[in-house]
Write a structure and sequence with these properties.
FAD/NAD(P)-binding domain; 12 helices; 24 strands; alpha/beta; Enolase-like, domain 1
Length: about 500
């Protein structure tokens, strides 16, 4: 009998299996496709490899920002796609392999798994059925692209995000349906690589979960990069005409009708949990449109069966690899250790556009709904950051959200925002005050020093409000003048 059988070897399953193996537990992983899951084969890794190439092309094209002669890059899209697949292959050969699982003591079983009992998993393999007896089951079967009900979708040249990196190269013009993180990232990358790109978003704005002020600035960047953005749009139909796919959509409050001929369409319209064929309903486990029903520990209605990651709806609807990995480890902890642990809801996330848009915790709107008049926000613009000027990258800024004086959210639009956000994530986790951030001396000049600059501004503003408490004196006393505005290094560096 195994201590744990994990169904699915993606981000959640791999982290859970490794953690359990390091506890000297007997572990098996069942995988019906490729080890690595969406993270490696269809999502994070290939998209970030593509973004790196697109960013390099953009740097070449805009080299005059840093005093160099700009040059238009020669782009071979088939070569770019081969490079993306080479990155995947390198990771697959060194990290996400059956041998690596074997080396840490995890048995890998190839096949389709069904939870056939509270302590039993039946696997359909090429050699026939194999029954795995186990103390616990962890379901990590991930998700697949959601296909919206658009007339003609089945007959047009349409790619899902799961298929996009398996093609030889993209067509010379693309329509992207969906303005979430994947849609925004792919739209900018394709436009920078010379693909005529149009982005259709049903909501009134791109990235509706993010700070609207920073999103508006990012939308301006996309437009300058050549992306044609249509928000509040309803794609009604897709038609094949010769070698083209014709997109018909209604856009905006006025209901303007658009007819656009493109070489292909990329769907970035969300994902659907992979719950089919798992046998969960037969055990009395609730399964719905958002995935498997679990509590905050990852446990289903059956004590021995857990589900985490995309198949359980992620964390508050966020289907993120880092969330899945954390949930996998938390589930194992709850299975085998006393007490009760829940995944941290304040997990940072990032849209890997250029500049990147990262966040953790609450938006201003969410903070106001929860804290009312005790919610405040503090903003800092990159035009006041010396490193941003040196890099020729002043588009962006920081925002910190507080509730009852404690930091409850933060948002960053900046180069490498995904790296910068971790300091602010720790501040949210530790429930720090904005002024606490002034205690940290940041390296100067860095983009991250903007956090210290924002904190200084907040501290000066609060001091200005409380200036009536200041001791007054003659020479050597404290002045009642409070310095405000402008660029200050203060506690941010040399």
């Amino acid at each position: 009998m195994f201590d744990l059988v994990v169904i699915g070897a993606g981000a959640a399953g791999a982290s859970a299996a490794e953690f359990a193996a390091r506890l000297d537990l007997s572990v098996a992983v069942v995988e019906r496709d490729r080890i690595g899951g969406d993270r490696l084969w269809t999502g994070t890794v290939p998209s970030k490899a593509l973004l790196a190439t697109a960013r390099t092309a953009h740097i070449m094209r805009t080299a005059d920002r840093v005093g160099l002669e700009p040059v238009e890059p020669t782009i071979d899209l088939a070569r770019v796609w081969r490079r993306v697949r080479a990155v995947q292959a390198q990771i697959a050969a060194t990290e996400d392999t059956a041998q690596r699982f074997h080396d840490i003591g995890v048995e890998v079983v190839d096949g389709h798994a069904r939870v056939s009992g509270p302590e039993e998993v039946t696997v359909a393999t090429e050699a026939g059925e194999r029954v795995l007896a186990t103390r616990f089951v962890l379901v990590c079967t991930g998700s697949r692209p959601r296909r919206p009900p658009i007339d003609g979708l089945a007959d047009a040249t349409v790619f899902s995000t799961d298929e996009f990196f398996d093609i030889e190269s993209p067509p010379s013009s693309m329509a992207i349906i969906g303005g979430g993180p994947s849609g925004v990232e792919m739209a900018q990358a394709l436009a920078r690589l010379g693909v005529a790109t149009t982005l259709f978003q049903r909501a009134a704005t791109l990235l509706p979960r993010e700070d609207p002020v920073l999103v508006a600035r990012l939308a301006d960047v996309l437009e300058r990069d050549g992306v044609h953005v249509h928000c509040a749009s309803d794609v009604r139909s897709l038609r094949t005409e010769g070698n083209d796919t014709v997109v018909e959509a209604v856009v905006g409050q006025g209901g303007e009708r658009i007819r656009l001929a493109v070489g292909g369409v990329l769907l970035a319209t969300g994902r659907t949990p992979n719950v089919e064929g798992l046998g969960l309903e037969d055990l009395g486990i609730e399964v719905g449109r958002d995935g498997v029903a679990v509590d905050d520990t990852g446990r289903t209605a059956v004590r021995t069966v857990y589900a985490v990651g995309d198949v359980a709806g992620g964390e508050a609807g966020r289907l993120l690899a880092n969330v899945a990995e954390q949930q996998g480890v938390v589930a194992v902890r709850n299975m085998f250790f006393p007490g009760r642990s829940a995944a941290d809801p304040m997990v940072p996330s990032c849209v890997f556009s250029d500049p990147e848009l990262a966040r953790v915790g609450l938006t201003v709107e969410q903070a106001e709904a929860e804290y009312g008049a005790d919610a405040e926000s503090w903003r800092f613009d990159l035009t006041d950051n010396d490193r941003a000027h040196a890099e020729g990258a002043t588009e962006g800024g920081f925002m910190v959200v507080t509730g009852k004086g404690r930091i409850v959210g933060a948002h960053v639009l900046a180069p490498s925002a995904g790296e910068v956000i971790h300091e602010l994530a720790l501040a949210v986790h530790r429930q720090l005050r904005v002024e606490d951030l002034t205690d940290l001396v940041h390296v100067y000049p860095t983009i991250a020093s903007g956090i210290g600059q924002l904190a200084n501004e907040a501290m000066y503003e609060k001091a200005h409000r409380l200036r009536w408490l200041m001791r007054r004196g003659e020479a050597g006393g404290v002045s009642d003048r409070v310095r405000r505005g402008g660029r200050r290094r203060g506690a941010t560096g040399n």
